[in-house]
Design brief:
homodimer, mainly alpha, Multidrug-efflux Transporter Regulator, Chain: A, Domain 2, about 5% strand, elongated, disordered C terminus, DNA-binding
Chain lengths: ~160, ~160
Amino acid sequence: MKKPEDYLAIGDAAKRSGVATSTLRFYETRGLIHSIRVSGNHRRYHRAMLRRISIIRVAQTLGFSLREIAAALDTLPDQRTPTKRDWEKLSTSWGKQLDQRITDLQNLRDKLSGCIGCGCLSLKRCTLYNSDDGAAGLGAGPRYLLGDEPWSGPGD
Amino acid sequence: MKKPEDYLAIGDAAKRSGVATSTLRFYETRGLIHSIRVSGNHRRYHRAMLRRISIIRVAQTLGFSLREIAAALDTLPDQRTPTKRDWEKLSTSWGKQLDQRITDLQNLRDKLSGCIGCGCLSLKRCTLYNSDDGAAGLGAGPRYLLGDEPWSGPGD
DNA sequence: ATAGAAGTTAAAGTTAACTTTAAGTCAAGC
DNA sequence: GCTTGACTTAAAGTTAACTTTAACTTCTAT
């Protein structure tokens, strides 16, 4: 069942998946993908990994972190090529999360609209200030650092 | 016009704005805010800075990077409290960018929907694979590193 | 006058997602 | 037999947005 032709060297896997070899090694340290070793300690990736790699990349485009992706992939079989059903479950779940992010952004957008004309940046009760929705974290950079200190309001 | 009461020590500015003193110093190195120095080399922030700091925080919630925020703030007066008109211009521009991000996300969502049932992760021409829309960069982490290598397709 | 709170700077640490570099191993072709 | 190309690991570098630490200095109140 598992013929040698089913396995790719890291360089070939890189070419076929479109990601750098260093990235593949990195993904492996993060448990996102797996390999077997052959003589000389060289890695060999099963062809099924190619699809796994593709899924990872798609998920990143959708805005998920590697940590989240790893968690999602843990629900998939490692060595078996994910079935249509597997992918359906994953993508449905991701779709819901995407919807949530869109909703969050729209809420923020509404709040901003309400604030555009009013000059309310001077007000203590500006909805934008006191909004604690999950929308923070959508931008770039490490959001986990933000909000460490409780936000006591602008006081102006 | 500029009375001493108009100036705050860094600790007071931190308390009133809700951000840590270290953050204020950091923002200053990035040119986001400014201060004057009094005896003993201590910083003093003009009260107008409080509003500037608030704007920075709001913009971050909206998902903008400090670099983008700095650029936007450069269109504002430094020492003068931003007027309602100033804020209107800023927030309008930010609103448009928010709209764009929402649109991008929705496009992505549509593509995902189209792919949920079809099992197309196995296809070379899956729209999700070959989507090069600006939606990448909405997630966490440094997206500038992604896409360095041209994406030659999954090949599976 | 002196303790303690608050300030100052420079440098290093943190997280994510990788890349780059250094130094060495292996296999294949000529 | 030897060069070349592909591989391996471990460690350090990169960016963003801060925080933490170290080593001092200064202000404030008693």
